[in-house]
Each structure stands twice: as structure tokens, then as C-alpha cells.
Amino acid sequence: MYDVVIIGAGPAGMTAAIYCTRRAMKTLIISKEIGGQVARTFLIENYPGLKKVDGVSLAFDMKAQVESLGGEFLMDTIEKIEKLPSGGFEVSSTDRHYLTKTVVVAAGLVKKKLGITNEEKYSGHGLSYCINCDGPLFKGKKVAVVGGGNSGAEAVEFLTKICPQVYWLEITDQIRAEAVLLDKIKKLDNVEIFAQAKIIALSGNDMLSGIVIDQNGKKLEKDVQGVFVEIGYQAQTDWLKNTLDLDEVGQIKINALGHTSCPGIFAAGDVTQSHYKQIVVAEGMGAIAALEAYRFCRG
Ligand SMILES: Cc1cc2nc3c(=O)[nH]c(=O)nc-3n(C[C@H](O)[C@H](O)[C@H](O)COP(=O)(O)OP(=O)(O)OC[C@H]3O[C@@H](n4cnc5c(N)ncnc54)[C@H](O)[C@@H]3O)c2cc1C
């Protein structure tokens, strides 16, 4: 039996694994892939101690660190966690079962996409799903923000400080961001708001340089070098809905110490209700969940 099974090998899961192995816990980390969202990031510029680092290198350095400490990795997709009558849990994929005293769920999330042609091509080449990650790279450029909720508004508010022109698009007839921020944005001269509007085409060569907007049937072309998509996310936690308390977008509810609604199961990183979906935040939460799993095992 393992002391801890960690589900997800992104920054939260890998950090949890480092802390667990250093506490001499028998640790298994199970993930669909190594690195999670980090492995899909070309350049990270907000990781303390490393001025610039590419995501794949960072992810594989973390993996090497976990392995050097004795952590085991398995590539698999977990579909079920069951509480054992004798104590502990059985963590299962379609055909494999792992027994453990505690579980740390660090399964991340998936950002909602526009669902249009060329989206993959321009992702990381002008198209971004993370204002805190990529916003500063667009200083002096014309940009668009898709999504009229609070995340979209925060992105617009920041970009208006560094960009000459920001186009803000909302698919419904109403911007849903909180009134105070919305009023502030409406007073700025470098923002143009489009309600009932969506991007229907992305264009450019290697880098994004233009978009076509459909506003209520009317087509508008705009030159932009950046598009930020802030239309929400979905945690991949359908398989956990009968085991843990989740919120309306599938995020796991936890307390400040990473405890879920089931004693012995902890959660960390983007899969939780953490407000800031960032690497260092996920790592901090991974450390907390790991130390709490250790405390749980010790009894
Ligand atoms: C394109 C992009 C750029 C970014 N740039 C930055 C940046 O510059 N700076 C920054 O701080 N943040 C950045 N972020 C955000 C950052 O990557 C995330 O906040 C961070 O990776 C979250 O870590 P996590 O471990 O919680 O989840 P994730 O990184 O999402 O990892 C979760 C892992 O769990 C696995 N998993 C999920 N479900 C299961 C299951 N059922 N069974 C087994 N495995 C499972 C997934 O496959 C994945 O490997 C960026 C994100 C993206 C998408």
C-alpha cells in the first residue's frame, strides 16, 4: 500500500510529490501526461529564480527531481477513488487498481476554447488563455479580449494600461463584469466594447495579426497582435462528483489546508477553487496538501 497516491503530474502534483518523498512517504504519482499545462507553455517569465524558462524543460526537471527522491510515476487516467472499509482508498483506472492511505488530487483544468479554425495554430503565437502569464508580452500592441465576465474585465483593465487599443467582445447582449470595474473601463478611450459579438476568424502568418468579428450578423475586421480568451474553464472532475464536493464548474472545494469533503483526500492547484491559476500558486498548494497528507498518515 502507498502512503500517498498523487493524481496529476503538473506543478501542484509534482510539488506534492517532492514534499511527500522528502517525508519518506511511499509515493506514487499517476498522470495522463507529464507537466500538465506547463508542458504546453513555450515561455514562462514569472517563475522565481528562473528569469525565462520553457515549460517542457521545467516539467521534466520537476519529474527528475521527484524520481531522484524515490517517487514513482505511472502514466494512466484515474476514473475512480473508493474508500476502503478497512481504511485507506482504492484508486482505479479502467484496468488497474492502486491502494493508498491518502490521495492528493492535482488534476488541473482545461480552459474553454473559441472553437474556431486556426485556434491551435495561433495558440502561443498571439492567442492566449492566460492574462497573468502572457499579458505583459503584449505591451504596445493592439489586442482583443473575449469574454465579458470578471476575468475578461480584469484582463481588459490591465491591457488598457499597456496597449494602445483593446477590443472587448461579449457573446451575449450584456457585459457581466462587476459594475465598479465596468464603469472604470467604460471611461477609458482605448477600449471598444462589442456586445453580441464573437471572433469567427483568426489570421496572420506565423504570428496572429488579425481577427474577424461577427457582431449580430455584421462582419468587422480588426488588426490585432494578441487575443486573450477569458470564457471560463472546466475542471476535469466528472469522475469525482460522487466522491467529493465540487462547485458548478467542477472545481474541488477545499479548506485552507487542502482538505476536501472526504478525510484523507486532499486537493491542490487549478483543480480547486483557487482564484489565481498560476504555477507558483499550484505549487504552494501542492506543498500544503502533501504536508497535510503526511500528518493524516502519521495519525
Ligand atoms: C498556455 C498556458 C500558458 C501558461 N503560462 C503560465 C505562466 O507563464 N506562468 C504561470 O504561472 N502559469 C501559467 N499557466 C498556468 C499554469 O500552467 C497552471 O496554473 C498550472 O499548470 C496548474 O498546475 P496544476 O498542477 O494544478 O494543473 P495542471 O498543470 O493542469 O496539471 C494537471 C495534470 O493532471 C492530469 N490529469 C487530469 N485528470 C487526470 C486523471 N483523471 N488521471 C490522471 N491524470 C489526470 C493532467 O493530464 C495534467 O497532467 C499557463 C497555462 C497555459 C495553458
What does this structure look like?
This protein is of the alpha/beta class. The protein folds into 2 domains: 2-110 and 233-298, FAD/NAD(P)-binding domain (3-Layer(bba) Sandwich); 113-229, 3-Layer(bba) Sandwich (FAD/NAD(P)-binding domain). Helices cover 25% and strands 29% of the residues. The protein contains 7 helices and 17 strands. The strands form 4 sheets. Strands 1, 2, 3, 4, 5, 6 and 17 form a 7-stranded mixed sheet that branches. Strands 8-15-9-10-11 form a 5-stranded parallel sheet, covered by helices on one side. It has a 3-stranded antiparallel sheet with strand order 12-13-14, with no helix packed on it. The chain is elongated and about 65 Å long. The mean pLDDT is 96. Bound molecules: flavin-adenine dinucleotide.
Coarse morphology: elongated
Low-pLDDT runs of 5+ residues are none
Helix content: 25-40%
The CATH class of the largest domain is Alpha Beta
Number of strands: 17
Largest sheet, strands/sense/barrel: 7 strands, mixed
Give the integer mean of the pLDDT values: 96
Termini separation: 16 Å
Which structural class best describes the helix and strand composition?
alpha/beta
Q: What is the CATH topology descriptor of the largest domain?
A: FAD/NAD(P)-binding domain
Bound molecules: flavin-adenine dinucleotide
Radius of gyration: 21 Å
Q: Element order, helices and strands?
A: EHEHEEEEEHEHEHEHEEEEEEEH
The proportion of residues in beta strands is 25-35%
How many distinct helices?
Answer: 7
